[in-house]
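Chain A, query sequence.
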Amino acid sequence: MKTLATSTIASSLLISATAMAQTAPSIEEIVESAIASGDTEALDAIAKYVPAESDTAIKIQSYKTAVAAEAAEAEAAKKQGGLFDNWEGSGQLGGFQSSGNTSSVGVTAGINLTKEGEKWRYKFRTIADYQRTNGTTDREQFLVALEPNYKFNDRLFAYGLAQYERDRFQGFSARYTLSGGLGYSVIKTDKMQLDVKAGPAWRKTNLIGGGSTSDIAGLAAANYSWKINPAITFTQDLSAYVQSGNSTYTSLTGLDAKLSDKLSARLSYQLEHETNPPLGLKSTDTLTRATLVFGF
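Chain A, predicted structure.
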C-alpha cells in the first residue's frame, strides 16, 4: 500500500512539472512580449544572457535599431517644425538715395527670414522702396522671393527659387522668375561663409508700355558674408540672369554695425544693370540704403 501511495505522489508531481513546463513562456515569447510593450529595459536584460549570434540577440538588436531610427526621425521632424515654426531673421526700416533713372530720397522696408532643418532650409525675403513727392510716385520698387534648399550634405545643396519683382522705373510692372539648380558652400566657418549656386531659370516680364516677354535664362549667384569682428559684418550678394535679349546683373554690398543684441545699423549699396532696357530708360540703376535692422 505504501509503495502504491508513493508511486501515485510521484506521478502527480511529474504531471504537475510537465504541465508547468508546457505553460511557462519560452525566451522567444518573453522577447516578443517585451517588444510588443516597448519594454527596452527587459530586452537589455535578456540580451546580457543570450549569445550575441543567436536569433534572439539579433531580433533584440533589430528592434533597438528600428526604435533609434524612429526617434531620430521624430527629432528631425520636431526640429523642422510646422510651416510657421522655427523661422529666424530680421526686419529693416530706413531711407535711401537713388541715382540713374530716378534721383530721389525715400523710404525702404524689408524682411529676411530663414528656417533651418535637418535636410531642408528655407529662405524668404522681401524688400520695398517707395517715394511719393507732391502727389506723384517717383519710386516704386518691390521684390519678394522664396528659396527652398535641400541639403545633400553639409556643403552641397539643391535650390529652388520663386521670385516676383515690380519696378515701374525700370520699365516693368511685374517680373516673375522660377529657377532651380545646385549650390555649394565654398567657405563655411564661424567668421566667413561663401555660397555659390547656378541653374536654369524662366523669366516672364510684363512691360509698362504694354506686352510681355518670356525667356529661358541661366542663373549664377554668389552670397558672401564676413564677420570682421563681433560688431561689424560685411556682406556681398551677386546674381546674373543671362539670356538673349536682356540680361540682368545685380550687386548688393552691405555693412552691418551691431548696436545691441537685437538691433543693428545697415548701410548698403545696390547696383542693377539691364543690358537691353526698354526704350528711353538707362541701363544701370543704383540705390543706397541706410536702415535699422531688428533681429527676431
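DSSP finds four helices and twelve strands in the chain. The chain has a mean pLDDT of 85.
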